[in-house]
Amino acid sequence: MTTVGGQAAGGSAENGQAAGETAEQGQAAGEAAEQGQAAGEAAERRVRVVLVDDHRMFRAGVQAEIGRTDETGVEVVGEAADVDQAVTVIHATRPEVVLLDVHLPGGGGVEVLRRCAPLAAAGENPVRFLALSVSDAAEDVIGVIRGGARGYVTKTITGRDLIDSIFRVQEGDAVFSPRLAGFVLDAFASTDAPPVDEDLDRLTQREREVLRLIARGYAYKEIGKQLFISVKTVESHVSAVLRKLQLSNRHELTRWATARRLV
Amino acid sequence: MPVTARMPETTDDPPVRKLYRSADGRMLGGVARGLAGHLGLPVVWVRLAFLGLFLAHGPLGVLLYAAFWIAVPLGVGGRSQEARTLFETTSDGRRRLRKPDRGQVVALIALLVGAAVFAGTADLGGDANRYVWPTLLVGVGVVLVWRQVDNARRAQWTDSGRRKRLFQLARGLAGVALVGMGLTVFLLVRGSVAQLGTALTAAIAVLAGMALLAGPWLVRMSQDLTEERTMRIRAQERAEVAAHVHDSVLHTLTLIQRNADDPSEVRRLARAQERELRNWLYRPEGTGKDEADEPDTLADAVRKAAAEVEDKHGVPLEVVVVGDCPLDEGLAAQMQAAREAMVNAAKYGGGGGAVQVYAEVEGRTVFVSVRDRGPGFDLHAVPDDRMGVRESIIGRMRRYGGTARVRSAPGEGTEVELEMDRSEEADG
Known about the structure:
The structure holds 2 protein chains of 2 kinds. Chain A is α/β, with parallel strands linked by helices. Chain A contains 15 helices and 6 strands. Chain A binds chain B through residues 135-137, 156, 158, 178-179, 181-182, 185-186, 189, 212, 215-218, and chain B through 278, 281-282, 316, 318, 320-323, 353-354, 356, 358, 360, 369, 371, 373, 415.
């Protein structure tokens, strides 16, 4: 297992920083992660969240599902319906996690990520982003991840799983929906093209196995059991994949990213 | 997304029967075929008539034909309007060539014979005889170029591939060359060779200058036209599908209001509509397919099976596919088994939320897993009916040389894993 060293932070100014933190966070979050993923223990966990989505109905629904702070530990501190609003609200409230819709008026979730990059890279209390979308388009999904989001879930996710994902993002982990795992496997599929950067353009066998199990609908705990590794190790594999996803110059990834004008 | 056969707007069945030149199955300008279609005669007769005119009073036949050619618009005369799709490209991007009909071949031979006879017999006396060949050359060249222009017009409703375009270009050039040759021969016959050099140089200089001046503009214009045309066709297609989608969304909303007190039906309707919409929004260009079509690749087959099970049992199935390949016999069997597994998961494990379906093509191996989060069961204490189904899954996979594993434990849900190697000849 490779640890993400500090040198990663010297990489891309936008994403490298976030990746650098993963290592420290990963160590710190170890104990928290060991406690399992049940939202039932949320009572002692707290997280401040901003909802960014242009559909008022959806925001209301999410608010109703996760916003009961006493039960869930999630406190919704702000909402926004477009890019400008979102940037303003995020700067004003400094939440720990932003639930970010991919399609937004004013440039989409990607634009929010771009304009909040300094906050995301802050050493103290960084703002982390979890993308939420109805979209199935690979370029959308890969696009927001390369833009700096720490995960991607579809809007059909259950309230409980969403709360779970929010806490996981707060702890600095990555959250992959089965669909995102599928896209990543596709993007890193073996091609004849030689890798530009051996470390970034290839997935290790282990990472592949983990992604495959995520795509098959396994929870982290189940993946750990299946591969005889700890949940923490599963998480570090997923974080490594996220980092590769954000920094790799692989042709497919770049293509998807340029489709969203990210590069 | 079906590609509908659309006739171009210019050839909507006109109320009055008009005379058109035929765009296909023609030799020169399609005049004979168009006339034949218009008059309801076999095309060979018309061609023979023209040929007869041509032989009897040379200029008259030619003049008549030329007059028709210039005056009559190109359309789809003379051919029964069998429904021909706009894009007749097969899935692998090949276009089938139609065999030329025998009438064409016969007519071509007749034409050549006629031309030869004419050239031989046209004894216009003394000097003029020498002009016959150059005139013929020029004539053939002009005909070639004219056909070229016709083709450009025709391209509005047949998309021409790159090779075809090259061929057309070659034909145009050949026409120009023939005309040039004819003119050169004229000059040679009329004047002395000494003048030829100067005349040629001057002509070439003028031509080159014109090409330089008008060339870029012409090229850009043709590019713009092509681009505009493809854009229009694409927009039209999309608009059609959008209309269809909007229509079915409205239908679904109506049905949902009607069935508001039947939650499972509402869920089923919403899910089916969502699928259709996703299909339209997120499928890559050109792979748009109706769910009614028979799938021919693995990814399509998996999605289709999942869609059917979803509709029938009202349990959502989330499908993730990595890679793709064409279906063969073994994989078809695997799809059957996967479908059984999906039905099982929906029936017994649907209580635990969405069923997760994962299919992956890796090298020669195709792997499919179907996982539900239902109550699960003890494999050693299965009721008979489930045993039967399991046999049908495992047995079927074995018969075709694949493997199947079923894993389940009470409280853990159930997972079926199917693995099958692709056959050697199917390469995708």
